[in-house]
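Regression report. Comparing outputs from two consecutive submissions.

Submission 1:
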Amino acid sequence: MKLPIFLAAVLPVALCLCFGGCKTLSLPTGKGYTGLCQTYVGHDSSTLVDSWGPPGRTFNAPNDQKVFVYVETRDEYSMNPLAHSALIEYPPNVDGRKSGPGEVTQTVVGQSVPAMDYCITYFEVSQQNQVRKVFWKGDCKSLEKTQAK
């Protein structure tokens, strides 16, 4: 009888000591997605295409730039906006004032909308094939990169 009482008292303490030094669990966020998009700004668009694959749609913007559009749906039952051209708008209706903390930088403007079943990302590419600006909207998340100290 004393052994179960001893285990009940010692086991939680032992587990806390074992796992107390583990890294804190991090979850994907909109800020992390902005950071991911930021890694492509200023680089050749071929780097983007090599990583993300060919865009779902491309078109010319009024300012002599190309726009690459990527859409990620939550599951196979979600409506893909690329199938409905009315849902692809440019300039995108992304309101930085409604963005969460860390979702907007000088070159990336994002707006988390968790109720959307998809994430749509627009990459503006210059005539020199350099990614200039990124807009995203929807349920877009990625792990935040930690700064090395």
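Submission 2:
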Amino acid sequence: VAKFLETGAGEPTGAAEGSTSRGKTQAGAIIGTADYMSPEQAMGGQADTRSDIFSFGAVLFEMISGQRAFPGEDAQETMSAILNKEPEPI
């Protein structure tokens, strides 16, 4: 049986202490972890079901191989790899 606990690790930074505001997204803002971002998200496009499948594949790749599918030194380099490279064979 799997149990999930809310640790607050996903809370936005910079929120006032005791604030109940979750923050709001802004048009054109890229939100997500670059390592698991789909190509359309990396280009600033709309995420859909295909984006979820791509992200799941990236997580599965990492679980099986022990390495990121699209490694990069920073978010920009990672998004560039997602757009321009193929993952290394497992």
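Expected: both submissions complete independently.
Actual: both completed, but the second showed a warning that disappeared on reload.
Relevant detail on submission 2: DSSP finds three helices and no strands in the chain.
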